[in-house]
Protein 1
Amino acid sequence: MSETSSPPAARAESTPSFSPLYQQIKTLLVTGLESGQWLPGQAIPSETELAARYGVSQGTVRKAIDEMAAENLLVRRQGKGTFVATHAEAQTQYRFLRLTPDEGAPAMLQRRLLDCRRMRAPLEVARLLALKAGEAAVQVRRLLLAGSNDDLKPVVLDDLWLPGTAFKGLTMERLQAWRGPLYRLFEAEFAVRMIRAEEKIRAVAAASEEAALLGVPEGAPLLSVERLSYTYGDRAVELRRGLYHTASHHYRNELN
Amino acid sequence: MSETSSPPAARAESTPSFSPLYQQIKTLLVTGLESGQWLPGQAIPSETELAARYGVSQGTVRKAIDEMAAENLLVRRQGKGTFVATHAEAQTQYRFLRLTPDEGAPAMLQRRLLDCRRMRAPLEVARLLALKAGEAAVQVRRLLLAGSNDDLKPVVLDDLWLPGTAFKGLTMERLQAWRGPLYRLFEAEFAVRMIRAEEKIRAVAAASEEAALLGVPEGAPLLSVERLSYTYGDRAVELRRGLYHTASHHYRNELN
DNA sequence: ACGCATTTGTTCGTATGTATT
DNA sequence: TAATACATACGAACAAATGCG
């Protein structure tokens, strides 16, 4: 029987409230995370307590938590509890950075801040971050460098744009003082947790300024990685454009 | 089925290290797939039947199948059954191809076969595919083109290497005659199903031959995508190197 | 058009195992 | 050792989707 494009059966779809119980529980839990009821790194109530609180069985709560754990919103630890995922842990240091050295183990990268300024969001940025025309944005530019301490070579040039209102206190000084991943700063100081991202990857030729900063000839091929990061509720809260020098590193991806 | 004196499941005691029942069931199912007991597109037995066959509860079988469905080994369809995943479906046409047009919906790509030859596997290929030195390999070269029928432009230049023994009958003629994705051919005619892949992505400058085939200037930046594809049992069975022209397309990735 | 059997999906309840404190 | 929390396993019942007669 071949598949002819038969029209989808007209379902009695009048009630969108036809959602499984565990999905409803999941929604409740997500809004709890969104509202800051449980903070990153903290434990949420036990399955049995949540079951009692919401008047469902423990297995139903379990299924809701299972899905959230699969989405990296929560982390389960047997015998200890279930915790709100955080960027403040070794395993999740660079959760979104797929750059890997061609040889050897992924090593720590050095950060070098180049710029941080407040400005009106450019049109394209405003569109992607769902900002109103002319609204404030913060732009950050920085380098990531690899190698031993006395032989550092730049591998990534990052440009970030963030919504001005949510990142009010973000200044050059604040960034200079910070030792650690940016997402950890955002989470700890600005209550913005990135949970998901989409990337568009291209090969481009290095412009003169970029080439100088990365130490490559003008026109050299670079990997352009445009990332849009989302927080709870699928709200885009960061636009990042990275230029990767892929001579001795590569972008690693796993397909399933 | 409520037998009063049904024999309790003879559990394999003293397994090297403890493994949950559902994991053992999963192993049994995977080996069933690997051995060709159930073929791509076919339905496996129902949960209740598997539960009876293996002497475990239906919920335990369910958990095993859940994990395999999450790994894209199986596909569940409510009311119909659980099916062995296949590349022969519209949804999974280009399951590993992340190339997306910058504007508009992902469109069908045209295939143009350039070459297919048998040869001794080059050293690097032999290493990655776990072949013995000097063993036979098949190399395929082809173009993927996008655009309307009277205005096709090349966007991908693919070079593939396959183990010679597993792909004995793969010839230029055979490929010419085939209309459809390669992975579907491999699955249907050579009983090799790709279930997972790893990619290393770089930006490179187009060499003269590649530039000519893709219709770009020599030295133009291209995306180099080196893919190693695996079948059941984590055996690498395909090495593919793609050069993507990313002027009006990009490589799309989702990070979780 | 209708109902029935089959299969997966959801929900509940209970008991036991394993890890942590 | 004991208490707590997540992990595994079983059993039962009903809902929803599908296909067939």
Protein 2
Amino acid sequence: MVETRRQQIETIASSLFREQGYAGTSVRDIARGLDIQGASLYAHVASKEDVLWAIVRRAAERFEAEIEMAERATAGAAPVERLEAYVRGHVGVLTENVGQASVFIREWRSLSPDRRARIGARRDAYENRWRQLIAEGSQAGAFAPTDPPLAAAYLLTALNGIVTWYRPDGPLSARAIAAEFVNLSLRSLGAEERP
Amino acid sequence: MVETRRQQIETIASSLFREQGYAGTSVRDIARGLDIQGASLYAHVASKEDVLWAIVRRAAERFEAEIEMAERATAGAAPVERLEAYVRGHVGVLTENVGQASVFIREWRSLSPDRRARIGARRDAYENRWRQLIAEGSQAGAFAPTDPPLAAAYLLTALNGIVTWYRPDGPLSARAIAAEFVNLSLRSLGAEERP
DNA sequence: CCTACCGATCGGTAGG
DNA sequence: CCTACCGATCGGTAGG
């Protein structure tokens, strides 16, 4: 697959931001990864923050698309199955593009106030869907009684931790990780093991 | 309690590093919090990194002391009780000094290579104790069968997530958070609810 | 703890 | 995409 220059920039910036943070990465660091001069980067992007913004937006879109798919695929199903779909989708987004996902999770605070607010609202909406599902499952008796906001925070950060250690060429496949994390997630909510 | 100037520096730096990251915080930012000139900070510290190093070391000591206490308090007890002590200790360190704990968890990568390696070894040793306990509990049948390294990573990042949203003056007390997170943790490992 | 200052690097622009 | 350059800020030092 041919990557446009713009895509290359975002890919390299993602991994640099993941490793060194946004503030710890200079425009020249990014340019070096493309074998061009620092100032030449501005032929392709308007600012350093625009690169961060593009990465964060793309990641947000992927999380949202994935949870929409999970919703549609398990509409009317039992809470346990719906949660499994949520977890698989979330872990899938995490592992398919760790750099991008990691930046979304950890570096969105570096955005300008208005952009930070906009992405914050989308993050809240996403997390609310998890709270909602947990609340429903809890009320239906499929999950143990729990505080939905707290349980959602617990669950999502547990999953998000994957970005701190996951490597695509590591010993554990994304499938194996997803399988184990589905079990851990279901148990966390007191759901019975799947058959 | 009277804080020495040095302690004030670490306290202010902790909260700034937590909010803006180490790279995103300047020496002048820290000095401003003390109402002194940027250069005057160097009457108290050798370098910016020394401040980070001091914070990280102190946090590491607290986590280590707390798990030692948990070990002693529950020596010979059932895995469920031991895990509960681990979780309470960990959450206690997190909430008692969120700034310091947050910097320990999220900013240790900004240390120089040798210091990063040293703190990395201590983090590994700490995580190993969790793995060990999970493995023992799993073998004894007190916990559901699981991959101890993966389960430990899941659990610890779930707990660590607390530093991203906890505020001492927030609506949830540290006690209440600890209680709920103990439940979530025990359930995550498939332990039966405590009576 | 201050003033005065240092070289290096930062994000970014002008003009090709 | 390059060269040449900008003002601002960075971590840090000298000398009081």
Protein 3
Amino acid sequence: MTTDAFLADCRARLAFDLFSNTWNAVLLWALRDGPRRPVELREQIGGISSKVLTETLRRLQFNGLVERRESTGTPARVSYELTALGRTLLGPIDAVGAWAFAHGEEVMAAQEAAGAQTHGD
Amino acid sequence: MTTDAFLADCRARLAFDLFSNTWNAVLLWALRDGPRRPVELREQIGGISSKVLTETLRRLQFNGLVERRESTGTPARVSYELTALGRTLLGPIDAVGAWAFAHGEEVMAAQEAAGAQTHGD
DNA sequence: CAGGATCCCCCAAGATACTG
DNA sequence: CAGTATCTTGGGGGATCCTG
């Protein structure tokens, strides 16, 4: 990453697009400890609908970050887990999350300060 | 970052939202070496309209990541630069960018493979 | 329980044109 | 050159209903 190739066309955009979806990073993070079933993910995460969960999982699967497992057992047991590639993303995700922990307050303070000046966004 | 607080409500979401906008990270990165004028940014980045550039800059400013400078000189010289807070985000951004460099090919390969199986998305 | 199908809303983002 | 205003659109994402 010493290049200026970060810009419009570059493949770095590819990674940022991965973070562009509301739930992508959340889901990857929720899967960091191993396979999870959809119902577990929904409980663990909270606030995500069944439809969106599936969509997001499919998207991650499409990008080779998540693998779908179907135990063709009795009550259609399905689970998802990170692929090797998906696990490599945990580092960057953690970096971002750690930043939020360290500086989240500052951002919120800045937002309030800016909002107060203008109109109270 | 050892918590499970990554999920729906948590403040980690705040950081990911920062990456959720197409140009946020790109602009922060473009500003990593110091102040830049809008016209410079547009040239450097490419593919961003004047309107979107301003919007993005405003958003970053609102979040306390970027500061606007106006040299009240002759032809309305304006420049933007990272705040101290903004500079702390360069680390995570670099982490993500580095990941893209290391694994971008794999993701694209996975996309093609997945697309080929289905219908050629 | 998994997840597809529908309908709807919102807003980021592009195009274009205009003002200081 | 900087920035705004307007119009339009694509698609993420929520809600709801329905099926295997």
Protein 4
Amino acid sequence: MNAPDTLTPEPTTLTAQLRRGNLFAEQCPSREVLKHVTSRWGVLVLVALLEGTHRFSDLRRKVGGVSEKMLAQTLQWLEGDGFVLRKSYPVVPPHVEYSLTPLGRDVGLRVQDLADWIELNLSSILQARGEPDRTAP
Amino acid sequence: MNAPDTLTPEPTTLTAQLRRGNLFAEQCPSREVLKHVTSRWGVLVLVALLEGTHRFSDLRRKVGGVSEKMLAQTLQWLEGDGFVLRKSYPVVPPHVEYSLTPLGRDVGLRVQDLADWIELNLSSILQARGEPDRTAP
DNA sequence: CAGGATCCTAAACGATACTG
DNA sequence: CAGTATCGTTTAGGATCCTG
């Protein structure tokens, strides 16, 4: 850990190659999915839906700052990836419910885990930034 | 869990409030950190650095498609948040090494967990999209 | 109510050139 | 080598209006 002239020579183990083979490759399809899941609103929508089914306006109200357009687009991304189930009731006025598929719950839990960790460690992070700690009184 | 007409009325438990209190609030400082960590290149840089110390050009080569500018900016974000340690050796030509702090390793593991999950389930996801499964021959 | 269509701005991003 | 500076392009994102 103290030889500045030798750089870490790639842990070329088989498992590493197989498990995280192409994420670093520019054309890896995972990147698209990752983009949806880690998008500004994707994270919040997934976490919100972990708490249960929501209607469009519920999500809009819950996820502070999201616009109609972006919420719709985010939901379509996540639906397209098989994470979100869209259930439309043919009534007037329209009634649409969004929920997580099993796949979505799985990925949502990991996203929530990450988000929770950040909130929990926000204090240390802000201190690293030299910013005031707003989590403690 | 099966009443479509009653939406989840906010789990106003203390723990929920404390643990994920303000993520949904527009001005929550966590969002900024989340943005860095889940950014297009932030994810890849964190995962790359989990494998060990890298020099700038190593990262540049490893993370396919990243530009000098974005790599530099991403590293500065992560350094500012206390996730990445920048070690500069005053030699010529310049020699700079990037590694993860304990905090960075912690968050990196969660990001990697998410990324790995996506790669592992890419097959199911692409099928949900109706796209061909490129992970199986 | 749920969103599609349109228009527009700000931000992200990339390519290139340049410097200590 | 490890960046910064600058510029041009692309995309994200928001506001508004409109419809079933």
